[in-house]
Write a structure and sequence with these properties.
Elements: H1 2-30, E1 41-43, H2 48-59, H3 86-95, E2 109-111, H4 115-122, E3 140-147, E4 150-157, E5 174-181, E6 183-185, E7 209-213, E8 216-223, E9 226-233, H5 246-258, E10 261-264, E11 285-291, E12 328-329, E13 345-346, E14 355-358, E15 365-366, E16 403-406, E17 426-428, E18 433-436, E19 444-449, E20 454-460, H6 464-469, E21 477-478, E22 483-486, E23 501-509, E24 512-516, H7 519-530, E25 533-536
Parallel strand pairs: 11-25
Antiparallel strand pairs: 1-6, 2-10, 3-4, 4-5, 5-9, 7-8, 8-9, 12-16, 13-14, 14-15, 16-23, 17-22, 18-19, 18-21, 19-20, 20-23, 23-24
Length: 565
């Protein structure tokens, strides 16, 4: 029976592969210039027999547990049936009450959780039982989500919670994230695949790479054929009490890696790679919605004068993040009232209506956040606009991590005011998903985990106090279109930026979560919101000679936008 099953599966696999390649050829040939594209996604094959071997090795030093797990495979069933591996089903039954939906992960779930120790403790009559952190090497679980794409988890290590570690200068809990995914996005990543080996962990993780990029120290490795990445938000500089240095984060990450055990997961049916294709758009044209080409940022607004990234990929079919149209995608730093990314404003404005321009550009501006240009079409890309954040997708390697969005209107407090009143326009979840956010954090991340997607969306500049009060915190599940906040102006403090919503997109790769240009994803979402197709227009060259390209100062890598103290 087994050879016949395998032969049948091989034939089906070959047919599906041929069909997929045919579809790819058709879409590639039929795509017209200016079409929006969907991303290509690779599928990994999990080595489940190796998983069983490791699980057996992790518990075999506890003879009392031998009778609790069955390692003999049931070979009369297809290998994708979880019943072929009863030991994994038994493990999932133990960990499911602790880690919701862990049995839904199609990849082995690695966590700093010693299931053998936990079971051994449960078999005793001792009371009271130790807290869960006892079985997690001092790490405290903050968020866990598993689904058809894999799993994501966030743990925290409170100060002084870990035995045998050097004292950290950083005085707050260190948050650690881990992702294991059956999906990896096929993106052009100039910085991908780099990193340094970690000799202290080479025996346990032979292919381990340590990378500092995009505001995180990352440890990327492959096990059982699956890519995993452990990451910690940090600053690559000297240790400080209120900002985690990457050198201290590395020590925590390496302790986390040493504590990893198999905690669950189950085999699933084989899948085909997802070929890129053409994204459908509304047939009817909008009467007024226009947008400038992807990658066309305001002249000389890029880091050291570089351009944006002309990416026509719709990374996910989402609901637009602001509840109601109209909305306006443009720069909040290099348009009216903007601070020109601290490059200087000439002449320096002080009163509403003062005219000025950025030192890096001759574009005329006015000192008024409510200026009509800020609240009108066409849209303009500002991914890769000048910022001190490392972004591998940007030509200069640094820039703005997402897209700024202004809501429909700007209401002023009085006739002489130059600032918009915040908290008047609703922000919604763009997809069904789970929230990643700790108390007082400025950013809200929405994680989406489906059979065909493993993607994250981040919202910035909403009021953290309101978010805390409304329970927009770790592990909260939200539905597409559900209110999650209000467009505000918070950046380190109220009034720290213009009234706008920063929105960005991350996709999972073998280097972890990577920022990609959300501009076309947002255009596609907006077209569905208004029920009409926008019109791309080109920008007329600014009159007069342009200043020399700005030479931005080189700063140490900052944490991800707005996540600093």
């Amino acid at each position: 029976m087994r050879p016949a099953v395998r032969g049948s599966m091989s034939l089906r696999f070959a047919r599906r592969a041929a069909a997929a390649w045919l579809l790819l050829a058709i879409t590639a040939c039929g795509a017209a210039a200016g079409d929006f594209r969907t991303p290509g996604i690779s599928i990994v094959r999990v080595e489940w027999r190796t998983v069983l071997d490791q699980l057996k090795s992790e518990i075999e030093d506890r003879p009392a547990l031998a009778g609790r797990f069955t390692f003999n495979a049931l070979r009369h069933l297809p290998w994708s049936d979880p019943r072929t591996m009863p030991a994994l089903m038994q493990l999932n039954a133990v960990t499911l009450p602790l880690f919701t939906r862990i049995n839904q992960s199609p990849v082995p779930v690695l966590l700093p959780f010693d299931a053998g120790m936990y079971l051994a403790e449960r078999m005793t009559s001792a009371s009271p039982r130790p807290p869960l952190a006892h079985f997690q090497d001092g790490f405290q679980e903050r968020m866990f989500d598993a689904g058809p794409a894999g799993y994501d988890a966030k743990f925290a290590l409170p100060p002084g919670a870990a035995d045998g570690m050097p004292q950290l200068t950083y005085k707050k809990p260190v948050e650690i994230q881990i992702t294991g995914s059956i999906l990896t996005y096929d993106i052009d990543d100039p910085s991908g695949g780099k990193g340094e080996s970690v000799s202290a962990l080479a025996a346990q993780f032979p292919d381990l790479r340590r990378i500092i990029r995009e505001g995180y120290v990352r440890y990327a490795f492959t096990r059982f054929g699956v890519p995993y990445v452990v990451s910690i938000h940090c600053l690559d500089s000297a240790p400080r009490a209120n900002r985690l240095a990457c050198r201290e984060a590395s020590a925590v990450a390496e302790r986390f890696l040493k504590a990893l055990h198999i905690a669950g997961g189950r085999p699933s049916q084989s899948r085909m790679a997802i070929a890129p294709g053409v994204m459908p758009r509304p047939a009817a044209s909008s009467s007024d919605f226009t947008y400038r080409p992807p990658g066309e940022i305001i002249a000389n607004s890029g880091y050291r004068g570089d351009s944006g990234r002309a990416d026509t990929t719709v990374y996910s079919q989402i609901r637009f993040p602001i509840e109601r149209a109209p909305a306006y995608a443009n720069s909040q730093s290099f348009l009216n009232w903007g601070d020109c990314f601290h490059r200087g404003r000439v002449p320096p404005p002080s009163d509403k209506g003062d005219r000025y321009h950025c030192k890096s550009s001759n574009k005329p501006l006015v000192f008024d956040e409510s200026a009509a240009e800020n609240y009108s079409y066409p849209w303009q890309d500002n991914f890769c606009e000048a910022r001190d954040f490392n972004v591998g997708q940007c030509p200069a390697g640094s820039g703005h991590q997402g897209q700024d969005l202004r809501p429909a209107t700007c209401t002023l407090r009085n006739k002489g005011a130059d600032r918009c009143i915040p908290n008047r326009h609703v922000v919604v979840a763009v997809r069904n998903g789970v929230i990643i956010r700790s108390l007082r954090q400025q950013g809200v991340t929405l994680l989406v985990n489906t059979r065909d997607e493993h993607v994250r969306f981040r919202y910035m500049h909403m009021n953290p106090a309101r978010l805390d009060k409304d329970g927009i915190l770790d592990d909260r599940r939200v539905s597409e279109g559900e209110k999650i906040g209000l467009v505000s102006n918070y950046m380190d403090h109220l009034g720290g930026t213009t009234t706008h919503l920063h929105f960005d997109v991350q996709v999972f790769t073998r280097d972890g979560w990577i920022w990609v240009n959300p501009y076309v994803t947002l255009i596609s979402a907006y077209e569905r919101l208004i029920g009409g197709r926008g019109r791309e227009i080109t920008t007329e060259a600014e009159a007069g000679p342009q200043p020399a390209k700005p030479q931005d100062p080189v700063h140490p890598e900052k944490p991800a936008e707005g996540e600093g103290d």
